[in-house]
Design goal:
- This protein is α+β, with helices and mostly antiparallel strands.
- The chain has a single domain, classed as Chloramphenicol acetyltransferase-like domain (Chloramphenicol Acetyltransferase, 2-Layer Sandwich), CATH 3.30.559.10.
- The protein is built from 8 helices and 10 strands.
- It starts with 8 loop residues before the first strand and ends in a 14-residue tail after the last helix.
């Protein structure tokens, strides 16, 4: 493996002087974090889901969570600057679209959490995403340990001093692009986005920190679906079902204008999910 090459991304060369300097000015993700709240109107989305599921077989049923993940994968495919990350104070373009999320083994207070990482294609449809999510969630809730759980079990059994040395070595290897690709591929903290679906347990969405470990530059929290006053097309205040998405973004990967346009694309896909049933049309990006 080349010293300055990474197994999961390619170094971005055509950056402005400012973009190249920013990772040195702000080395950490949390000091580079920007927080953004997006409220989505689901009045069409939920009725469309109900109608679509009435025609789908039991194995192809889709949920609102499927819609959000499919919209994120589609957005990352069409807006590639959002699919970049910082490592070793350099900017890299990720080669795949990988989304990680937490899964509770069961709906009990003491049930453990595990993390799942799924790689999607830029042309995946909503049905493709739904199938992959059902499979991954089923594996995450199974009794067998996932690859990341096996690794954590080994590290957690070490004395504190040894664990600290191992983690320090891991960070050093990662900084110099010497971390084996097999470790990166299996680790859910090396992904495009981390998603927390708190709406599934009836909670509103808070802002979440970014992890300094790994390479994830975006954390998204999905809140509960709720009624809220919305100004309709006629200028009247009406009650509609909405959801809040709370984003924490590493501003070093792309400027605010690019991020804002990307999130508006995501809004359109979630609010009109029928567009996700077919592969995307070619775009100039």
């Amino acid at each position: 493996m080349a010293l300055f090459g990474r197994p999961d991304g390619d170094r971005v060369q055509n950056l402005s002087m400012l973009r190249r300097f920013i990772p040195h000015l702000m080395p950490g993700r949390n000091e580079s974090a920007v927080f953004f709240n997006q409220t989505l109107d689901l009045s069409h989305t939920l009725s469309w889901l109900e109608a679509a599921n009435a025609e789908l077989g039991q194995d192809d049923k889709i949920s609102f969570f499927h819609v959000v993940i499919a919209a994120m994968a589609r957005t990352l495919g069409q807006r590639p600057q959002l699919n970049r990350y910082i490592s070793g104070r350099r900017v890299y373009q990720r080669r795949d679209i990988a989304i990680s999320f937490a899964v509770k083994k069961s709906f009990e207070d003491e049930a453990p959490l595990t993390t799942v990482k799924i790689t999607f294609g830029p042309d995946d449809t909503l049905l493709d995403v739904g199938r992959r999510l059902r499979e991954a969630i089923g594996q995450g809730r199974g009794q067998a340990l996932t690859t990341s759980e096996k690794e954590l079990k080994v590290v957690a059994a070490m004395p504190r001093g040894v664990m600290r040395a191992v983690m320090g070595a891991q960070r050093w290897l990662d900084y110099w692009n010497l971390l084996p690709g097999a470790m990166i591929q299996a680790d859910p903290m090396y992904a495009s986005v981390f998603v927390a679906n708190l709406g599934s347990i009836g909670l509103d969405a808070p802002f979440h920190h970014l992890y300094e470990y790994g390479t994830i530059p975006i954390f998204v929290v999905i809140g509960r679906i709720k009624k809220a006053p919305v100004v309709d097309e006629a200028g009247q205040i009406v009650a509609r079902e909405v959801v809040d998405l709370k984003y924490t973004l590493d501003e070093r990967v792309a400027d605010g204008f690019y991020c804002a346009r990307s999130l508006e694309l995501l809004r359109g896909l979630v609010e009109r999910p029928e567009a996700l049933m077919a592969p995307p049309e070619p775009t100039g990006r």
